[in-house]
Design a protein that fits this description.
The structure is a single chain. By secondary structure, the protein is α+β, with helices and mostly antiparallel strands. It folds into three domains: about 80 residues, Acyl-CoA dehydrogenase/oxidase, N-terminal domain (Butyryl-Coa Dehydrogenase, subunit A, domain 1), CATH 1.10.540.10; about 110 residues, Butyryl-CoA Dehydrogenase, subunit A, domain 2 (Beta Barrel); about 130 residues, Up-down Bundle (Butyryl-CoA Dehydrogenase, subunit A, domain 3). Helices cover about 50% and strands about 15% of the residues. The protein has 13 helices and eight strands. The strands form two sheets. Strands 1-4-5-8 form a four-stranded mixed beta sheet. A hairpin with a 5-residue loop joins strand 6 and strand 7. The longest helix has about 30 residues. The radius of gyration is 21 Å and the shape is globular. The relative contact order is 0.10. The model has no long low-confidence stretch (mean pLDDT about 90). The structure holds flavin-adenine dinucleotide. Flavin-adenine dinucleotide (FAD) binds next to strand 1 and helix 13.
């Protein structure tokens, strides 16, 4: 494969780089979690129709090619610009496939113009890896459904105005068959949100409670009781996103700079670990380019390769974070606010969640083994 960019691709990359440099957060992780900064970035990208770049033009996208999307993701993540959200990554794509015309007209433009922010309401205290076991009930009542139950680990629920909900509509059917998908306004009467603070001290996710929440039946997406299939496709969109190693690439580059400046000292062992991480970043980067190139040629995303790349990238993030902690030693563990270690300590603590969010590594390996490699279920 030829990894050189065409003149048009190189010009596009330059254009994105100029905007990404303008939007890049001057501060550390705290600023990137800042809602005002996130909104500013969202609106700036929406103005350029870049938020949902690959979507068809009729829905507010640019019909961008997979390679353009890949260059965009890579450039934005390298500069740590929060360039997407759940609405763009999987709710919108699932609506494009399974929503009716009215739902597409109502929801898609508000995602691409940055007005609506979505959260994902799947996990429950008793249903995570085994999502089909979810118990939140949606009971038909005239033109509405009445929702009761609890969700957990809902990222960004407190900053979203819409929720993408999986709920049980037929408790007597086999568990994969009695489920439906809904669009729920997060300010609906009876819906309440309770914060959960993670071990970095940030409030990212929440518990969400439904107490007789009424949702019009027009906000059910797809057929009643067929929601599992919509959910599975949305999960594929979530797990096969491309261009996700650029953040790790940036961490390696910054860390190398720190070592060169003498503010962190390597032993022979940590030097080898750092080199190994740098090699893995490059390998995954080229796999990302191959995924985009294949998708460009065939029109179909090689989902097995994309899932493998995503799983490896998440595990690599943890490997890099653990390597930086070993090099920084006691300073890394002290976590003083003005220390060079601060960003690395934060990244180390946050990286623990990488192999859980969006489906654990074990579950992703199961999916790769059965759906990708055709192996029998264990
Ligand atoms: C930072 C973060 C953000 C999140 N955001 C959201 C969100 O926005 N919306 C949402 O709905 N959810 C969200 N989640 C929840 C996430 O999807 C679940 O935590 C995840 O799917 C695992 O489910 P669980 O926590 O119930 O663990 P469990 O399913 O109880 O798993 C516990 C352990 O058992 C292992 N295990 C379970 N089943 C199997 C199996 N069949 N084979 C092998 N091993 C198995 C798992 O790999 C894991 O190690 C988030 C989680 C995190 C950490």
């Amino acid at each position: 494969m030829d990894f050189r960019l065409s003149p048009a691709q190189a010009a596009f990359q330059q254009e994105v780089t100029a905007v990404a440099d303008e939007l890049a957060a001057p501060g550390g992780p705290d600023l990137r979690a800042d809602p005002e900064y996130n909104e500013h970035v969202r609106m700036e990208l929406a103005k350029r129709k870049w938020l949902a770049m690959p979507w068809p033009k009729e829905y507010g996208g640019l019909g961008a090619s997979p390679m353009q999307q890949m260059l965009y993701n890579e450039t934005m993540s390298y500069r740590r610009v929060p360039a997407g959200n759940m609405g763009v990554w999987w709710v919108g794509p699932a609506l494009i496939l399974y929503g009716n015309d009215e739902q597409k007209e109502r929801f898609l433009p508000r995602i691409t113009n940055g007005d609506d922010v979505w959260c994902t309401l799947y996990s429950e205290p008793g249903a995570g890896s085994d999502l089909a076991a979810l118990q939140t009930r949606a009971v038909r009542d005239g033109d509405d459904y009445i929702i009761n139950g609890q969700k957990i680990w809902t990222s960004g629920a407190h900053r979203s105005n819409w929720g993408w909900l999986a709920a049980r509509t037929d408790p007597d059917a086999p568990k994969h068959r009695g489920m439906s998908m809904f669009c729920v306004p997060m300010d609906a009467p009876g819906l309440s949100i309770r914060p959960l603070v993670n071990m970095t001290g940030n409030h990212e996710f929440n518990e969400v409670f439904f107490d007789n929440v009424r949702v019009p039946a027009t906000q059910r997406v797809g057929e009643e009781n067929r929601g599992w299939y919509t959910l599975a496709v949305a999960l594929d969109f979530e797990r096969s996103s491309i261009g996700s190693t650029a953040g790790a690439h940036r961490t390696i580059d910054d860390f190398v700079e720190l070592v060169r400046s003498g503010r962190a000292v390597l032993t022979e062992q940590t030097r080898n670990r750092l080199s190994d991480c740098a090699i893995s970043v490059q390998v995954l980067r080229f796999i990302g380019y191959r995924i985009a190139a294949e998708q460009e040629q065939t029109g179909i995303a090689p989902t097995l390769l994309a899932q493998m790349a995503k799983l490896s990238a998440m595990e690599l993030n943890q490997k890099i974070s653990s390597m930086t902690m070993q090099v920084l030693g006691m300073e890394g563990q002290a976590h003083p606010a003005d220390s060079v270690a601060e960003a690395y300590t934060h990244a180390f603590l946050r990286s623990v969640a990488n192999t859980i969010e969006g489906g654990t590594s074990e579950i992703q390996r199961n999916v790769i083994a059965t759906r990708g490699l055709g192996l029998p279920r264990g």
